[in-house]
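Onboarding guide, step 5: your first structure request.
Type a short instruction followed by the sequence, for example:

Predict the 3D structure of this protein.
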Amino acid sequence: MDNTINWNRNVVTMGWSALFIWWGTVIMVDPLTIGMGAIGTGLIVLGVNAARWLKGIPMRRSTTAIGIVALAWGALDVVFDPRFESSFAMLLIVIGVVLLASLLTQPIPEDARPQ
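The system replies with structure tokens like these:
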């Protein structure tokens, strides 16, 4: 069990490291757009969940949803090239709704239900 916990922690740390490196690269390199940054973010987050799945560790539904939303947002941003402000604001709203929906759709454990 400790080996699985350590492995999961290492994968999460590698994912965060990759995200910070990717975000820094997107900010520094001029031809990379915010949409491309979102696509890369989605791929990294989904890659971490894929690594968990391959190791037999349950994937996080919230990060899977965020990865899919980031991929979709990035693809739409690259194709349609909307204004950054409205695009980023819409992304924040969608992420908030997805996080709230994932919380509300979780099953309630038997011991946590009111009597």
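Each response can be followed by summary notes, for example: The chain is about 80% helix and 0% strand.
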